[in-house]
Structure prediction request, 484 residues.
Amino acid sequence: MNPTTILLLIAGYFGLLLLVSFLTGKNDSNETFFKANKQSPWYVVAFGMIGASLSGVTFISVPGMIGGQQFAYMQGVFGFFVGYLIILFVLLPIYYRLNVTSIYQYLEQRFGTVSYKTGAAFFMLSRVTGASFRLFLVALAMQYIVFEQIGIPFWATVVISILLIWIYTFRGGIKTIVWTDTLQTLAMLVAVGVGIYLINQKLDWSYMEFLNSNEFAKKGQIFFFDDPNSKTYFWKYFIGGIFIAIAMTGLDQDMMQKNLTCKNQKDAQKNMFTMATLIVIVNFVFLSLGALLFIYSEKFGIDIPVVDGRTRTDLLFPEIAMNQGLGKPLAVVFIIGLIAAAYSSADSALTSLTTSFSVDFLNIEKRPKAVQKPLRKKVHIGVSILLIIVVIIFNNLDGSVVGNLFKFATFTYGPLLGLFAFGIFTKHKIKDVYAWIVGLVAIIATYAITQLPESVIGAYQFHWEILPINGLITFIGLWLIKKK
Prediction:
Protein backbone atom coordinates (compact mmCIF):
# COMPACT_ATOMS: atom_id res chain seq x y z
CA MET A 1 0.00 0.00 0.00
CA ASN A 2 1.48 3.33 -1.03
CA PRO A 3 1.93 6.23 1.41
CA THR A 4 -0.74 8.37 -0.28
CA THR A 5 -3.43 5.72 0.34
CA ILE A 6 -2.35 5.39 3.98
CA LEU A 7 -2.49 9.16 4.48
CA LEU A 8 -5.97 9.25 2.94
CA LEU A 9 -7.09 6.54 5.38
CA ILE A 10 -5.70 8.56 8.29
CA ALA A 11 -7.46 11.68 7.02
CA GLY A 12 -10.77 9.82 6.59
CA TYR A 13 -10.63 8.29 10.06
CA PHE A 14 -9.68 11.62 11.60
CA GLY A 15 -12.63 13.23 9.79
CA LEU A 16 -14.93 10.71 11.46
CA LEU A 17 -13.48 11.56 14.87
CA LEU A 18 -14.00 15.25 14.16
CA LEU A 19 -17.65 14.56 13.37
CA VAL A 20 -18.08 12.77 16.72
CA SER A 21 -16.30 15.68 18.42
CA PHE A 22 -18.61 18.19 16.75
CA LEU A 23 -21.72 16.31 17.86
CA THR A 24 -20.55 15.79 21.45
CA GLY A 25 -18.65 19.04 22.03
CA LYS A 26 -21.33 21.64 21.39
CA ASN A 27 -21.38 22.37 25.11
CA ASP A 28 -17.75 22.91 26.09
CA SER A 29 -18.35 23.67 29.76
CA ASN A 30 -16.06 22.25 32.41
CA GLU A 31 -18.91 20.03 33.65
CA THR A 32 -19.08 18.47 30.20
CA PHE A 33 -15.28 18.26 29.79
CA PHE A 34 -14.67 16.67 33.21
CA LYS A 35 -17.85 14.61 33.86
CA ALA A 36 -19.87 14.46 30.59
CA ASN A 37 -22.76 15.82 32.70
CA LYS A 38 -23.05 12.29 34.19
CA GLN A 39 -25.21 11.16 31.27
CA SER A 40 -23.10 8.44 29.60
CA PRO A 41 -24.87 5.11 28.88
CA TRP A 42 -23.07 2.40 30.86
CA TYR A 43 -22.87 -0.04 27.94
CA VAL A 44 -21.19 2.59 25.74
CA VAL A 45 -18.66 3.31 28.50
CA ALA A 46 -17.99 -0.43 28.97
CA PHE A 47 -17.31 -1.05 25.29
CA GLY A 48 -15.17 2.06 24.93
CA MET A 49 -13.11 1.21 28.02
CA ILE A 50 -12.03 -2.03 26.37
CA GLY A 51 -10.21 -0.01 23.72
CA ALA A 52 -8.76 2.35 26.31
CA SER A 53 -7.50 -0.61 28.36
CA LEU A 54 -6.05 -2.39 25.34
CA SER A 55 -4.61 0.54 23.37
CA GLY A 56 -1.61 0.23 21.09
CA VAL A 57 0.22 -1.91 23.63
CA THR A 58 -2.22 -4.78 23.23
CA PHE A 59 -2.84 -4.16 19.53
CA ILE A 60 0.83 -4.55 18.61
CA SER A 61 3.02 -5.50 21.55
CA VAL A 62 0.93 -8.25 23.19
CA PRO A 63 0.86 -10.36 19.99
CA GLY A 64 4.62 -9.84 19.84
CA MET A 65 5.04 -11.38 23.30
CA ILE A 66 4.15 -14.85 22.01
CA GLY A 67 7.71 -15.47 20.83
CA GLY A 68 9.11 -15.19 24.34
CA GLN A 69 6.43 -16.51 26.69
CA GLN A 70 3.58 -18.10 24.71
CA PHE A 71 0.17 -17.37 26.33
CA ALA A 72 1.56 -16.68 29.81
CA TYR A 73 0.09 -13.19 29.64
CA MET A 74 -3.38 -14.73 30.06
CA GLN A 75 -2.44 -15.60 33.65
CA GLY A 76 -2.21 -11.87 34.31
CA VAL A 77 -5.48 -11.29 32.44
CA PHE A 78 -7.28 -13.68 34.83
CA GLY A 79 -5.82 -11.57 37.63
CA PHE A 80 -7.20 -8.45 35.91
CA PHE A 81 -10.70 -9.95 36.14
CA VAL A 82 -10.43 -10.40 39.91
CA GLY A 83 -8.99 -6.88 40.24
CA TYR A 84 -11.92 -5.41 38.31
CA LEU A 85 -14.35 -7.13 40.70
CA ILE A 86 -12.57 -5.46 43.64
CA ILE A 87 -12.94 -2.10 41.89
CA LEU A 88 -16.62 -2.84 41.34
CA PHE A 89 -17.42 -3.70 44.96
CA VAL A 90 -14.90 -1.54 46.90
CA LEU A 91 -13.75 1.55 44.98
CA LEU A 92 -16.76 2.58 42.87
CA PRO A 93 -19.07 2.90 45.91
CA ILE A 94 -16.53 5.22 47.55
CA TYR A 95 -16.15 7.45 44.51
CA TYR A 96 -19.90 7.78 43.96
CA ARG A 97 -20.63 8.38 47.64
CA LEU A 98 -18.13 11.25 47.75
CA ASN A 99 -19.23 12.61 44.32
CA VAL A 100 -15.64 13.41 43.32
CA THR A 101 -14.41 14.93 40.06
CA SER A 102 -10.88 13.63 40.66
CA ILE A 103 -10.66 10.32 42.51
CA TYR A 104 -7.68 11.67 44.49
CA GLN A 105 -10.03 14.04 46.30
CA TYR A 106 -10.78 10.97 48.44
CA LEU A 107 -7.24 11.21 49.84
CA GLU A 108 -7.80 14.83 50.85
CA GLN A 109 -10.96 13.94 52.76
CA ARG A 110 -9.31 10.90 54.36
CA PHE A 111 -5.82 12.21 55.22
CA GLY A 112 -5.24 15.80 54.16
CA THR A 113 -3.87 18.06 51.45
CA VAL A 114 -0.34 16.62 51.18
CA SER A 115 -1.64 13.06 50.73
CA TYR A 116 -4.08 14.36 48.13
CA LYS A 117 -1.36 16.15 46.17
CA THR A 118 0.97 13.16 46.55
CA GLY A 119 -1.60 10.77 45.09
CA ALA A 120 -2.39 13.12 42.21
CA ALA A 121 1.31 13.64 41.51
CA PHE A 122 1.97 9.90 41.29
CA PHE A 123 -0.99 9.57 38.93
CA MET A 124 0.40 12.36 36.74
CA LEU A 125 3.77 10.62 36.63
CA SER A 126 2.19 7.21 35.98
CA ARG A 127 -0.21 8.37 33.29
CA VAL A 128 2.26 10.60 31.46
CA THR A 129 4.71 7.71 31.19
CA GLY A 130 2.01 5.10 30.46
CA ALA A 131 0.32 7.15 27.75
CA SER A 132 3.69 8.05 26.28
CA PHE A 133 4.77 4.40 26.13
CA ARG A 134 1.55 3.54 24.31
CA LEU A 135 1.69 6.46 21.92
CA PHE A 136 5.37 5.80 21.25
CA LEU A 137 4.61 2.25 20.16
CA VAL A 138 1.96 3.30 17.66
CA ALA A 139 4.00 6.26 16.41
CA LEU A 140 6.91 3.86 15.88
CA ALA A 141 4.69 1.57 13.79
CA MET A 142 3.32 4.51 11.78
CA GLN A 143 6.87 5.70 11.19
CA TYR A 144 7.88 2.22 10.05
CA ILE A 145 5.08 1.75 7.53
CA VAL A 146 4.52 5.23 6.09
CA PHE A 147 6.21 8.36 7.42
CA GLU A 148 9.77 7.11 6.98
CA GLN A 149 9.03 6.55 3.29
CA ILE A 150 8.01 10.16 2.74
CA GLY A 151 10.87 11.65 4.73
CA ILE A 152 9.01 12.74 7.88
CA PRO A 153 11.17 12.34 11.02
CA PHE A 154 9.93 10.51 14.10
CA TRP A 155 9.52 13.66 16.18
CA ALA A 156 7.21 15.14 13.53
CA THR A 157 5.11 11.95 13.53
CA VAL A 158 4.63 12.37 17.29
CA VAL A 159 3.74 16.06 17.00
CA ILE A 160 1.19 15.39 14.25
CA SER A 161 -0.41 12.55 16.24
CA ILE A 162 -0.90 14.61 19.40
CA LEU A 163 -2.00 17.70 17.49
CA LEU A 164 -4.80 15.68 15.87
CA ILE A 165 -5.87 14.35 19.26
CA TRP A 166 -5.89 17.84 20.77
CA ILE A 167 -8.11 19.13 17.96
CA TYR A 168 -10.95 16.69 18.59
CA THR A 169 -10.79 16.69 22.41
CA PHE A 170 -10.32 20.36 23.30
CA ARG A 171 -14.07 21.11 23.48
CA GLY A 172 -15.98 18.00 24.59
CA GLY A 173 -13.29 16.38 26.74
CA ILE A 174 -14.48 13.20 28.45
CA LYS A 175 -17.91 13.38 26.77
CA THR A 176 -16.22 13.15 23.39
CA ILE A 177 -13.83 10.46 24.63
CA VAL A 178 -16.64 8.14 25.76
CA TRP A 179 -17.98 8.02 22.20
CA THR A 180 -14.69 8.10 20.26
CA ASP A 181 -13.36 5.27 22.44
CA THR A 182 -16.38 3.20 21.40
CA LEU A 183 -15.61 3.83 17.73
CA GLN A 184 -11.93 3.06 18.26
CA THR A 185 -12.60 -0.16 20.19
CA LEU A 186 -14.73 -1.36 17.29
CA ALA A 187 -12.00 -0.47 14.78
CA MET A 188 -9.34 -2.37 16.74
CA LEU A 189 -11.45 -5.49 17.18
CA VAL A 190 -12.43 -5.54 13.50
CA ALA A 191 -8.77 -5.21 12.52
CA VAL A 192 -7.76 -8.15 14.70
CA GLY A 193 -10.69 -10.27 13.56
CA VAL A 194 -9.95 -9.65 9.88
CA GLY A 195 -6.25 -10.31 10.50
CA ILE A 196 -6.97 -13.68 12.13
CA TYR A 197 -9.39 -14.64 9.35
CA LEU A 198 -7.07 -13.72 6.46
CA ILE A 199 -3.94 -15.31 7.95
CA ASN A 200 -5.87 -18.49 8.76
CA GLN A 201 -7.18 -18.47 5.19
CA LYS A 202 -3.62 -18.21 3.87
CA LEU A 203 -2.64 -21.18 6.07
CA ASP A 204 -5.75 -23.08 4.92
CA TRP A 205 -7.22 -23.26 8.44
CA SER A 206 -10.44 -22.32 10.12
CA TYR A 207 -10.07 -20.61 13.52
CA MET A 208 -10.94 -23.85 15.36
CA GLU A 209 -8.52 -25.84 13.20
CA PHE A 210 -5.84 -23.31 14.12
CA LEU A 211 -6.57 -23.71 17.86
CA ASN A 212 -6.40 -27.51 17.52
CA SER A 213 -3.21 -27.55 15.41
CA ASN A 214 0.17 -28.86 16.53
CA GLU A 215 1.68 -25.47 15.70
CA PHE A 216 -0.66 -23.74 18.14
CA ALA A 217 0.06 -26.34 20.82
CA LYS A 218 3.75 -25.33 20.68
CA LYS A 219 2.88 -21.66 21.29
CA GLY A 220 -0.36 -21.77 23.25
CA GLN A 221 0.69 -22.77 26.78
CA ILE A 222 -1.16 -20.59 29.29
CA PHE A 223 -0.28 -21.88 32.76
CA PHE A 224 3.30 -22.01 34.08
CA PHE A 225 3.71 -23.58 37.52
CA ASP A 226 7.10 -25.26 37.14
CA ASP A 227 9.61 -22.48 37.95
CA PRO A 228 8.88 -19.94 40.72
CA ASN A 229 11.98 -17.99 39.66
CA SER A 230 10.65 -17.33 36.16
CA LYS A 231 8.76 -14.17 35.16
CA THR A 232 6.04 -16.39 33.67
CA TYR A 233 5.32 -18.24 36.93
CA PHE A 234 1.53 -18.37 37.46
CA TRP A 235 1.28 -16.77 40.89
CA LYS A 236 3.52 -13.86 39.90
CA TYR A 237 1.37 -13.08 36.89
CA PHE A 238 -2.00 -13.76 38.54
CA ILE A 239 -1.47 -11.90 41.82
CA GLY A 240 0.40 -9.14 40.02
CA GLY A 241 -2.49 -8.88 37.53
CA ILE A 242 -4.97 -8.31 40.37
CA PHE A 243 -2.97 -5.38 41.67
CA ILE A 244 -2.19 -4.06 38.18
CA ALA A 245 -5.95 -3.87 37.50
CA ILE A 246 -6.70 -2.20 40.83
CA ALA A 247 -3.91 0.35 40.42
CA MET A 248 -3.97 1.03 36.68
CA THR A 249 -7.76 1.11 36.46
CA GLY A 250 -9.31 1.62 39.88
CA LEU A 251 -6.75 4.15 41.13
CA ASP A 252 -6.25 5.81 37.76
CA GLN A 253 -8.11 9.03 36.97
CA ASP A 254 -7.99 8.23 33.26
CA MET A 255 -10.01 5.03 33.58
CA MET A 256 -12.21 6.03 36.51
CA GLN A 257 -13.16 9.35 34.93
CA LYS A 258 -15.10 7.38 32.30
CA ASN A 259 -16.86 5.34 35.01
CA LEU A 260 -17.82 8.52 36.82
CA THR A 261 -19.66 9.79 33.73
CA CYS A 262 -22.30 7.05 34.21
CA LYS A 263 -25.65 8.15 35.58
CA ASN A 264 -25.28 6.34 38.90
CA GLN A 265 -23.22 3.80 40.83
CA LYS A 266 -25.31 0.83 39.67
CA ASP A 267 -24.69 1.68 36.01
CA ALA A 268 -20.97 2.14 36.68
CA GLN A 269 -20.83 -1.31 38.31
CA LYS A 270 -22.62 -2.92 35.36
CA ASN A 271 -20.08 -1.22 33.11
CA MET A 272 -17.15 -2.58 35.11
CA PHE A 273 -18.42 -6.17 35.20
CA THR A 274 -19.11 -6.16 31.46
CA MET A 275 -15.69 -4.74 30.72
CA ALA A 276 -13.99 -7.30 33.01
CA THR A 277 -15.62 -10.20 31.19
CA LEU A 278 -14.91 -8.90 27.71
CA ILE A 279 -11.28 -8.09 28.52
CA VAL A 280 -10.57 -11.79 29.14
CA ILE A 281 -12.08 -12.82 25.81
CA VAL A 282 -10.47 -10.01 23.82
CA ASN A 283 -6.98 -10.61 25.21
CA PHE A 284 -7.19 -14.28 24.26
CA VAL A 285 -8.10 -13.24 20.72
CA PHE A 286 -5.14 -10.85 20.58
CA LEU A 287 -2.77 -13.57 21.76
CA SER A 288 -4.27 -15.93 19.18
CA LEU A 289 -3.34 -13.37 16.55
CA GLY A 290 0.20 -13.31 17.97
CA ALA A 291 0.49 -17.09 17.69
CA LEU A 292 -0.73 -16.89 14.10
CA LEU A 293 1.81 -14.19 13.26
CA PHE A 294 4.73 -16.28 14.53
CA ILE A 295 3.46 -19.44 12.86
CA TYR A 296 3.03 -17.54 9.60
CA SER A 297 6.46 -15.90 9.82
CA GLU A 298 8.16 -19.26 10.52
CA LYS A 299 6.30 -21.00 7.68
CA PHE A 300 7.20 -18.36 5.08
CA GLY A 301 10.63 -17.35 6.40
CA ILE A 302 9.72 -13.80 7.45
CA ASP A 303 12.31 -12.12 9.65
CA ILE A 304 11.26 -10.15 12.72
CA PRO A 305 11.87 -6.44 11.93
CA VAL A 306 15.04 -4.78 13.21
CA VAL A 307 15.01 -1.03 13.89
CA ASP A 308 18.16 0.86 14.85
CA GLY A 309 19.94 -2.43 15.49
CA ARG A 310 17.21 -3.67 17.87
CA THR A 311 14.91 -6.61 17.17
CA ARG A 312 11.29 -5.40 17.44
CA THR A 313 8.75 -8.21 17.90
CA ASP A 314 6.30 -5.29 18.37
CA LEU A 315 6.56 -4.69 14.61
CA LEU A 316 5.83 -8.24 13.42
CA PHE A 317 2.11 -7.50 12.98
CA PRO A 318 2.66 -4.36 10.86
CA GLU A 319 5.35 -6.16 8.83
CA ILE A 320 3.05 -9.05 7.93
CA ALA A 321 -0.04 -6.90 7.44
CA MET A 322 1.65 -4.33 5.21
CA ASN A 323 4.53 -6.03 3.41
CA GLN A 324 3.85 -9.76 2.98
CA GLY A 325 1.27 -9.90 0.21
CA LEU A 326 -1.83 -10.71 2.26
CA GLY A 327 -3.83 -8.18 0.28
CA LYS A 328 -5.20 -4.68 0.71
CA PRO A 329 -8.13 -5.61 2.99
CA LEU A 330 -5.73 -6.62 5.79
CA ALA A 331 -3.52 -3.59 5.18
CA VAL A 332 -6.54 -1.25 5.31
CA VAL A 333 -8.03 -2.66 8.52
CA PHE A 334 -4.57 -2.78 10.10
CA ILE A 335 -4.01 0.93 9.42
CA ILE A 336 -7.43 1.83 10.79
CA GLY A 337 -6.88 -0.39 13.84
CA LEU A 338 -3.46 1.13 14.40
CA ILE A 339 -4.82 4.68 14.27
CA ALA A 340 -7.64 3.68 16.62
CA ALA A 341 -5.10 2.19 19.03
CA ALA A 342 -3.07 5.38 18.96
CA TYR A 343 -6.00 7.67 19.63
CA SER A 344 -7.84 5.50 22.16
CA SER A 345 -4.87 5.53 24.53
CA ALA A 346 -3.69 9.08 24.08
CA ASP A 347 -6.97 11.01 23.86
CA SER A 348 -8.31 9.82 27.21
CA ALA A 349 -4.88 10.33 28.80
CA LEU A 350 -4.78 13.89 27.51
CA THR A 351 -8.25 14.55 28.95
CA SER A 352 -7.63 12.90 32.32
CA LEU A 353 -4.26 14.60 32.80
CA THR A 354 -5.90 17.93 32.01
CA THR A 355 -8.64 17.13 34.53
CA SER A 356 -6.24 16.02 37.26
CA PHE A 357 -3.89 18.99 36.92
CA SER A 358 -6.78 21.46 36.73
CA VAL A 359 -8.71 20.03 39.68
CA ASP A 360 -5.95 18.60 41.90
CA PHE A 361 -3.25 21.23 41.52
CA LEU A 362 -4.92 24.41 40.24
CA ASN A 363 -8.15 24.02 42.27
CA ILE A 364 -10.10 25.05 39.19
CA GLU A 365 -13.48 24.31 40.78
CA LYS A 366 -12.83 26.96 43.45
CA ARG A 367 -11.82 29.69 40.99
CA PRO A 368 -14.18 32.32 39.51
CA LYS A 369 -16.40 30.93 36.75
CA ALA A 370 -15.01 33.40 34.23
CA VAL A 371 -11.46 32.00 34.43
CA GLN A 372 -12.24 28.27 34.69
CA LYS A 373 -12.72 27.46 31.00
CA PRO A 374 -9.73 29.50 29.69
CA LEU A 375 -7.52 27.94 32.38
CA ARG A 376 -8.61 24.42 31.43
CA LYS A 377 -7.81 25.08 27.77
CA LYS A 378 -4.31 26.33 28.63
CA VAL A 379 -3.67 23.21 30.71
CA HIS A 380 -4.88 21.07 27.80
CA ILE A 381 -2.26 22.64 25.53
CA GLY A 382 0.47 22.28 28.16
CA VAL A 383 -0.25 18.58 28.70
CA SER A 384 -0.16 18.01 24.92
CA ILE A 385 3.33 19.53 24.73
CA LEU A 386 4.49 17.43 27.71
CA LEU A 387 3.34 14.19 26.02
CA ILE A 388 5.21 15.11 22.86
CA ILE A 389 8.45 15.61 24.78
CA VAL A 390 8.17 12.36 26.77
CA VAL A 391 7.31 10.20 23.73
CA ILE A 392 10.37 11.48 21.89
CA ILE A 393 12.53 10.66 24.92
CA PHE A 394 11.11 7.12 25.05
CA ASN A 395 12.31 6.50 21.50
CA ASN A 396 15.71 5.74 23.03
CA LEU A 397 14.50 2.94 25.31
CA ASP A 398 15.42 -0.70 24.74
CA GLY A 399 13.22 -3.76 25.12
CA SER A 400 9.57 -4.65 24.65
CA VAL A 401 7.30 -1.66 25.10
CA VAL A 402 4.70 -3.67 27.02
CA GLY A 403 7.44 -4.90 29.33
CA ASN A 404 8.72 -1.38 29.92
CA LEU A 405 5.22 -0.06 30.49
CA PHE A 406 4.28 -2.53 33.21
CA LYS A 407 7.73 -2.44 34.78
CA PHE A 408 7.57 1.32 35.20
CA ALA A 409 3.95 1.18 36.36
CA THR A 410 4.79 -1.23 39.18
CA PHE A 411 6.97 1.51 40.68
CA THR A 412 4.82 4.60 40.14
CA TYR A 413 1.44 3.10 41.04
CA GLY A 414 2.73 1.45 44.22
CA PRO A 415 2.38 4.52 46.46
CA LEU A 416 -1.18 5.05 45.19
CA LEU A 417 -2.00 1.45 46.06
CA GLY A 418 -0.58 1.88 49.57
CA LEU A 419 -2.34 5.21 50.20
CA PHE A 420 -5.77 3.97 49.15
CA ALA A 421 -5.37 0.64 50.96
CA PHE A 422 -4.40 2.37 54.19
CA GLY A 423 -7.32 4.75 53.86
CA ILE A 424 -9.89 2.05 53.13
CA PHE A 425 -8.74 -0.75 55.43
CA THR A 426 -7.72 1.23 58.52
CA LYS A 427 -9.33 4.03 60.48
CA HIS A 428 -6.07 5.74 61.38
CA LYS A 429 -5.16 9.32 60.50
CA ILE A 430 -1.58 10.02 59.48
CA LYS A 431 0.90 12.87 59.80
CA ASP A 432 -0.11 14.17 56.42
CA VAL A 433 2.96 16.34 55.85
CA TYR A 434 5.15 13.21 55.53
CA ALA A 435 2.98 11.36 52.98
CA TRP A 436 5.11 12.32 49.97
CA ILE A 437 8.27 11.13 51.73
CA VAL A 438 6.70 7.72 52.39
CA GLY A 439 5.76 7.38 48.72
CA LEU A 440 9.21 8.36 47.52
CA VAL A 441 10.97 6.04 49.98
CA ALA A 442 8.69 3.17 48.91
CA ILE A 443 9.71 3.58 45.28
CA ILE A 444 13.42 3.75 46.16
CA ALA A 445 13.17 0.74 48.47
CA THR A 446 11.27 -1.29 45.89
CA TYR A 447 13.79 -0.47 43.20
CA ALA A 448 16.62 -1.47 45.56
CA ILE A 449 14.91 -4.83 46.16
CA THR A 450 14.73 -5.49 42.41
CA GLN A 451 18.45 -4.78 42.11
CA LEU A 452 19.54 -7.34 44.70
CA PRO A 453 22.43 -9.47 43.40
CA GLU A 454 22.14 -13.15 42.47
CA SER A 455 24.12 -14.01 45.60
CA VAL A 456 21.06 -12.87 47.60
CA ILE A 457 18.04 -13.81 45.43
CA GLY A 458 19.56 -16.53 43.26
CA ALA A 459 17.89 -16.96 39.87
CA TYR A 460 14.68 -15.22 40.96
CA GLN A 461 13.25 -12.75 38.39
CA PHE A 462 10.92 -10.00 39.55
CA HIS A 463 7.75 -9.35 37.59
CA TRP A 464 4.38 -7.74 38.40
CA GLU A 465 4.70 -8.72 42.06
CA ILE A 466 6.80 -5.56 42.36
CA LEU A 467 3.54 -3.57 42.53
CA PRO A 468 2.03 -5.19 45.67
CA ILE A 469 5.49 -5.15 47.28
CA ASN A 470 5.68 -1.41 46.60
CA GLY A 471 2.15 -0.92 47.95
CA LEU A 472 2.99 -2.93 51.08
CA ILE A 473 6.10 -0.83 51.76
CA THR A 474 3.98 2.33 51.39
CA PHE A 475 1.35 0.88 53.74
CA ILE A 476 4.01 0.10 56.37
CA GLY A 477 5.45 3.58 55.98
CA LEU A 478 2.03 5.15 56.53
CA TRP A 479 1.55 2.97 59.60
CA LEU A 480 4.80 4.36 61.00
CA ILE A 481 3.58 7.96 60.59
CA LYS A 482 0.03 7.35 61.87
CA LYS A 483 -1.24 9.65 64.56
CA LYS A 484 -1.38 8.27 68.08
Q: What stands out?
A: The mean pLDDT is 82. The longest helix spans residues 265-300. DSSP finds 22 helices and two strands in the chain. Strands lie at 306-307, 310-311.
